[in-house]
């Protein structure tokens, strides 16, 4: 039964990853939080495990999603090369920062972050991309990658909720922003997952079937299904208008954000 749940999570997360370029983490983290809570794992590490396992699955999801976007010729590989070094360094350090935060603190951070990004994206959904805007210098892109990497590891996401708005704001159309974001999810996920394995190992987690903060069964189940459904999501992304993509993206983030804010407040009040 547990494995079936992980397969279902993977199916939903993979589709979202291909559609929105978000790596699926914004769906994986809250659902894993609920599943791990029902399995009565140690409450002090549940949130860290949800985030770490999410990052590990995004490695597989990103490979599937980016291959589909690459076939459409939508990935800006030159931009990816500029962002990647910062993404890798930032993600590993972000995992270390998350390790020091309490589970309740992580919940509130993720919740407010998701709502903030949703508001920014929803407000700008009807605003067309300014063709006169261009991406900043290579050094500035690398610095932006560092910031995105740190936040992504803390929130257990592939960075799409930051990378997509960043690229969009700098003149990249939505489809290419989503495609490039999918590629950026790979270095974020690898560095972040290694960080959560390392810091989790140092914390000596007493939960079965884990390596550090990563749950092996959840990783396998989610990865298998997300690899398949991410390709379908990527195809749908190229059928929708940029306006519709932005609005759907914002609604998804708002739902997740409100859920985590509620959970975090409840935990602090308990």
TrEMBL record:
Belongs to the 4-toluene sulfonate uptake permease (TSUP) (TC 2.A.102) family. PANTHER family: MEMBRANE TRANSPORTER PROTEIN HI_0806-RELATED (PTHR43483:SF3). Its main location: membrane. It is found in: Cell membrane; Membrane. Keywords: Cell membrane, Membrane, Transmembrane, Transmembrane helix. It holds the Pfam family TauE. The keyword Cell division does not apply. It is a multi-pass membrane protein. It comes from the Bacteria. This is Probable membrane transporter protein. GO terms for cellular component: plasma membrane. The chain crosses the membrane at residues 6-33, 45-63, 83-101, 108-126, 146-167, 179-199, 211-232, 244-262.
